[in-house]
Amino acid sequence: MCLATVYIDNNGRKEEVMHDVAWIESESHGLRLVTLLGEARLFQNKIKSIDLVNGSIVLEGEKKAKSEATG
Questions:
Q1: Domain locations in the chain?
Q2: What is the radius of gyration, based on Cα positions, of the chain?
Q3: If we measure between CA atoms, which residue out of 65, 9, 71 comes closest to residue 32?
Q4: Phi, psi of 4 (to 5 degrees)
Q5: What pLDDT, in 10s, does the model give residues 6-29?
Q6: CA-CA distance, 64 to 10, in Å (whole number)?
Q7: Other CB atoms closer than 10 Å to residue 64's CB: what's the count?
Q8: Is 18 in contact with 31 (CB distance < 8 Å)?
Q9: Measured in whole angstroms, how far is the alpha carbon of residue 27 from the centre of its chain?
Q10: Are strands 40-43 and 47-51 parallel, antiparallel or unpaired?
Q11: Cα(11)–Cα(27) distance, rounded to whole angstroms?
Q12: What is the SS3 assignment for 9?
């Protein structure tokens, strides 16, 4: 199973914002990230890098996220 930890890089300072991310979907308002347990958040950031070997995703800029209800 491939789960990822998501960080936001704000001027070289990385902040962990989600872990156990199992799904990423591009939407018109940003990136929808969903964890293994179904927690969903919408980020209005761009992807800076993805490291598939180490399971990490880095987003650019300041933290811009909204929690979402999952159904």
A1: 4-60
A2: 11
A3: 65
A4: -125, 155
A5: 999 999 999 999 999 999 999 998
A6: 11
A7: 12
A8: no
A9: 13
A10: unpaired
A11: 25
A12: strand
